[in-house]
Amino acid sequence: MGRYIIRRLLYLVLVLLAVSAITFGLMHAVPGGPFDREKALPPEIMENLNKRYHLDDPLIVQFGNYINDVFIPHFSTTAPTSALEDDAMIKFKVGNVYVNWMNFGPSFKSRSRTVNDIFRDQLPISVQLGLLAVLVALTIGLPTGILSALKQNTIVDYVGMSLAIFGVSVPVIVLGPLLIWIFGVSLKWFPPTGWGAKPPFLFGFLPTDLSYTGFWQYAIMPAVALGLGSSAIIARLTRASLLQVVREDYIRTARAKGLKERAIIIQHAMKNSMIPVVTILGPMLAALITGTFVTELTFGIPGMGKYFVTSITNRDYPVIMGTILLYALFLVVANLIVDIVYAFLDPRIRYD
Q1: pTM for the structure as a whole
Q2: What's the CA gap between 43 and 40, in Å, rounded?
Q3: In whole numbers, what is the pLDDT of the chain averaged over residues?
Q4: Where do the structural domains in the chain lie, given as residue ranges?
Q5: Which end of the chain is flanked by fewer CB atoms within 10 Å, N or C?
Q6: Which CATH class is domain 122-345?
Q7: What is the per-residue pLDDT across 203-214, written as a single tens digit (0 to 9) for each?
């Protein structure tokens, strides 16, 4: 298992390099630039801007500089300053040596903030929302799928699958305003918009104030709106997988030996039926954590989704590159965790 994890981590670096190269090439293949306007800027200003951000360098040089800033740690015996070249997502000190790693560069549109500043302020909020949405999806989806499978073709099954179809069919752009109107405007149970957690965050992403007024009253509606669709997918997949497992020969053998039904379901059927569910949790977790534009826009949440979408329209190359790299990193790491969990769910799965 240890060698497998090391091998996958090496593949992770190659995947991120490939994603960087493809994203960089596609961005620069589109006509235009980040400083193009309806009313063109004077040539002197365009020349100065391109020189300041090194956009006048050959593309291979620009890409090489980006890879050097993001992927390669930089060591120094002097303390980092507030200069752009010393800005990094990861900073630490080993003895008398300062290490700076993952400098995503400046933002072309947010002149007073670097891409790292945007990530530090907005990414933790998207992570909090995404984790809560996954928690909602698992809390609703797993019990619904299990009950529907155990009570197949009964009223419990029909109600559970009807709710699942509702969750899949109703998008966040419809469900979000509906929740705001009912629980935020009419009943006034929750604030219609906003996000309660404020920096600094614990461990870089966890809110320090978990009180109802400080966090939960703002988080409940967007988490439910974002997680309901995923819960429907989990419920349907759990039901289908569990129905398949309970028809296997070893389940019939366990019943023939006189084992209690509860023990059969919990100890034998549930564990094996979770493999397909765990498979989709990896990409689902990565997608929800990196920010969902519609949910954040609907509830006025200052997360990464808004910045990612606006960076595409504004041609803000560093924000686009950084966000896609983070999404790829979350996706690859989530899939690695899924593969590791496989070995615990099914002892027959081994990585040599």
Answers
A1: 0.86
A2: 8
A3: 85
A4: 122-345
A5: C
A6: mainly alpha
A7: 777 888 888 777
Pairwise CA distance, residues 225 & 130, whole Å: 11
C-alpha 323/C-alpha 19 separation (Å) is 11
Give pLDDT tens digits for 281-338: 888 887 787 657 888 888 988 888 878 888 888 888 999 999 899 888 888 888 888 8
The reported pLDDT for the residue numbered 291 is: 58
- Partners of 206 in beta bridges: 202
